[in-house]
Each structure stands twice: as structure tokens, then as C-alpha cells.
Design brief:
It contains 9 helices and 8 strands. By secondary structure, the protein is an alpha/beta fold. It has 2 domains: 199 residues, Alpha-Beta Barrel (TIM Barrel), CATH 3.20.20; 54 residues, DNA polymerase, domain 1 (Orthogonal Bundle). The longest helix has 27 residues. It is globular and about 55 Å long. The structure holds adenosine monophosphate (AMP), zinc ion and fe (iii) ion (2 copies).
Length: 285
């Protein structure tokens, strides 16, 4: 069984539509794929409708959080997407991304880059707008060669010249909201130091005590040392460990299934979840 529990679609900053994502996941030989768009569940219906036979969809989201001034991402799986309190929090985060993108565009304009909101809006479509969309605009304008090259102090990296913070949830509150909606939580890429400051292990212990279910260990942004350290921490804290690609289509150079999750861990995640069931593909369009 090949299980990839972290993928993005055009409902946030991926480049595959939800239908393309599930078709590509089946073509990549995956048995299970999770749709985890940033702060959004808007891709679910299209993914379910297009789900190929033999592929199972795990519905989820990647929630933007911040603790003690450090940004972190919380993967949430199999929660009830209609549950009002979690829905309201997702909307709050997602809606704030619009004025935040506009503020980053204003900073870029001050730096002499002629990027416009219309351009970024066209690239983002109706997905949760984020820095990767602004970065794609910079690529279009010839300012940087690739999306990743825009994530530098010169441009959009945390604290960079054109960076603006967005609203982010308190992860303790987010864990409570996800649990209340019947979902399961996994701290995404907790040791991804190249993205900026990381959350200390003492805080991960506090999150575990607050009900965090697992941490994502096998991720492209974790080197061998980070994986060993995170696996040890998970053992100490009694947390599940997952692996996933964090696929973003052509916006990031990583393939579906680049890292995968142990079937036993997957079994435990679906056993703990009460908000939604994995959806088996019936052979959609
Ligand atoms: P935002 O949520 O708008 O702050 O944008 C953060 C997103 O940008 C992350 O979730 C990643 O998908 C993406 N990202 C962060 N760092 C990089 C990088 N170095 N190269 C490409 N994408 C990145
Ligand atoms: Zn992303
Ligand atoms: Fe992330
Ligand atoms: Fe992600």
C-alpha cells in the first residue's frame, strides 16, 4: 500500500485541479491520497467526483498556525467539514490571505516590481491565495527564475523585504477545534529549518499533551538527522509518525508519493477519526 497524506490542489497553491490531482495520484501508483489544501476544503467535491477506482481519498486541510511567534502548519484529517467552529476558523485564516497578499504586492511595487493584484488573482483563481501565487507572478515578470527563488530575504521569505504576516491560528486552539470536529492532527514538517524558525521540542511536547496525534517525519524538507531526531521525539511522546510528498504540482519540484506513510499508522489515523470516512474511488469521470 502506498499512502501519501499531504497534497495541494488549485484549492490552495497547488497547480493540479482536485480532479487532476486524484488522476495523477492513481497514475503514480498510490493507493491512498490526502487532499490537504491550505486552510480550505473547497477541493473536496471535485476530488470525490473524479476519484478513480482503486484510489482512496482522505479529506483534510493544512491549517496555518503560529505559536510564540513561530509559524507552523497543522495537518488535519477526516474532520467534519461542516462543523461551524472549525469552518469559521478556516474562513478567518483564508479571508485574511487576501489583504495580506495585497500588502505584499504594495511592498513589491515600492521595490519597483510592477506586480498587480489582478495578476496574482488570475494565478490564484479561487484558491486560498498565498506566497507561492505571488512568487509565480514574480516568475512571470522575470524577477526570479523559479517560485523557490522568490522565498529569499530579498523577496518573500519570512521577514523578507516584501513579506507580510497573515492571520494564523493558535495550534492549541486548532487541535481542540479539529478534535471537536472529529478529526486527527499531525504537525507538518516540524523540523523544516530552511523555511525559518522551527517550534522547539518542548512546545511539541505541550502540543502532544494537548492532543496532537502525530508528526510528519518523512518530508523533503527534513534531512536524515532531522528525521532521526523527530522519530525519537515521536517515540518519547507517543506520537504517530507520517511521511508524505507535500505535492504542489508544477509549483514545487516534488513527485506524488516521494515519501509515504506506513499502512499501520494510516489505519490508526482512520480508527481515531470520527468526523469523516476515507472515500473509496468508484471510478469517477
Ligand atoms: P503562505 O502560506 O502564503 O505564507 O505561503 C507558504 C507556502 O509557500 C508554504 O506552505 C509552501 O507551500 C510554500 N513555500 C515555502 N517555502 C518555499 C520554498 N522555498 N520554495 C517553494 N515554496 C515554498
Ligand atoms: Zn503550499
Ligand atoms: Fe506546509
Ligand atoms: Fe503543504
Amino acid at each position: 500500500m502506498r499512502i501519501d497524506l499531504h497534497c495541494h490542489s488549485t484549492a490552495s497553491d497547488g497547480t493540479d485541479t482536485p480532479a487532476e490531482l486524484v488522476r495523477n495520484a492513481a497514475a503514480a501508483g498510490l493507493d491512498v491520497v490526502a487532499l490537504t489544501d491550505h486552510d480550505s476544503t473547497r477541493g473536496y467535491a471535485e476530488a470525490v467526483a473524479a476519484l478513480p477506482r482503486g484510489l482512496t481519498l482522505v479529506t483534510g486541510a493544512e491549517l496555518s498556525c503560529r505559536v510564540d511567534g513561530v509559524s507552523m502548519h497543522l495537518l488535519a484529517y477526516l474532520f467534519d467539514p461542516e462543523e461551524p467552529a472549525l469552518l469559521a476558523e478556516r474562513e478567518l485564516i483564508r479571508d485574511d490571505r487576501v489583504p495580506r497578499a495585497q500588502a505584499m504586492i504594495a511592498k513589491l511595487n515600492e521595490l519597483g516590481v510592477p506586480v498587480t493584484w489582478e495578476q496574482v488573482k488570475r494565478i490564484a483563481g479561487d484558491g486560498s491565495v498565498g506566497r507561492p501565487h505571488v512568487a509565480s507572478a514574480l516568475v512571470e515578470l522575470g524577477v526570479v527564475p523559479t517560485v523557490s527563488d522568490a522565498f529569499t530575504p530579498e523577496w518573500l521569505a519570512d521577514g523578507g523585504r516584501a513579506f507580510v504576516k497573515k492571520h494564523e491560528a493558535d495550534p492549541f486552539e486548532a487541535i481542540r477545534l479539529v478534535k471537536n470536529a472529529g478529526g486527527v492532527t499531525v504537525f507538518a514538517h516540524p523540523a523544516a529549518a530552511k523555511r525559518g524558525r522551527t517550534v522547539p521540542e518542548s512546545t511539541i511536547a505541550e502540543l502532544a499533551a494537548a492532543g496532537l496525534d502525530g508528526i510528519e517525519v518523512d518530508h523533503m524538507d527534513h534531512d536524515a538527522d532531522a528525521r532521526t531526531r523527530m522519530r525519537g521525539l515521536a517515540t518519547d511522546l507517543g506520537l504517530l509518525t507520517t511521511g508524505s510528498s507535500d505535492y504542489h504540482g508544477s509549483r514545487k519540484a516534488v513527485a506524488l508519493g516521494a515519501n509515504t506513510t506506513d499502512p499501520e499508522v494510516y489505519g490508526e489515523i482512520i480508527r481515531r477519526a470520527t468526523g469523516a470516512f476515507p472515500v473509496p474511488g468508484a471510478g469517477g469521470a
